[in-house]
Amino acid sequence: MRAPLSYAIAHAAAESALAAARAEGAAICAVVTDRSGGAKVLLADDGVGPIGIETARRKAHTAAVSGMATSAFAQLAASPAMAVAPVHLLDDRLLPVPGGVPITVDDGEVIGALGIGGADAATDDRLARQALKAIADLLA
Fold first, then answer.
1. What CA–CA distance (Å, rounded) separates 101 from 6?
2. Bridge pairing between strands 29-34 and 110-117
3. What pTM, to 2 d.p., does this model score?
4. CB of 59 within 8 A of CB of 117?
5. How do 110-117 and 100-104 pair as beta strands?
């Protein structure tokens, strides 16, 4: 098992997401968690309300514990197979909405996750993926 996600990498991911959002005129919240979904960094831009903050936190948690982007998790949660056991009954912190991505190392091990909230789902998802690309060198 790889060493846990460092604060420096977690903070860089959140800062990268906020910078990308600001460049587009958007205000977001970025939450980075460790591999178990516990919050490591939370940065909320001016004007982001409690719903944006909570959705970012829950998206990061979902990506960390599921090991998949929340856009893929949303498809899984909407599948007929999941109708028998809705995800919120398993863990009420799960949020199957785009905008959360796992942070992985080269061998695919999940070491944390990034969740974005405050914009629309497509923007949150795109900003999360951009932030992952921005920190790729730090993960090597």
1. 17
2. antiparallel
3. 0.94
4. yes
5. antiparallel
Contacts of 127 (CB under 8 A, 6+ apart): 17, 20, 21, 26, 28, 99, 116, 119
Sheet holding 110-117, edge to edge: 39-44, 29-34, 110-117, 100-104
- Tens of pLDDT, residues 73-100: 999 989 898 888 888 778 889 999 999 9
74, 60 in Cβ contact below 8 A? no
Output the CA–CA distances (angstroms, integers) from residue 74 to 43, 66, 98, in the order listed: 24, 11, 7
pLDDT in tens, 27-66: 999 999 999 999 999 999 999 999 999 999 999 999 999 9
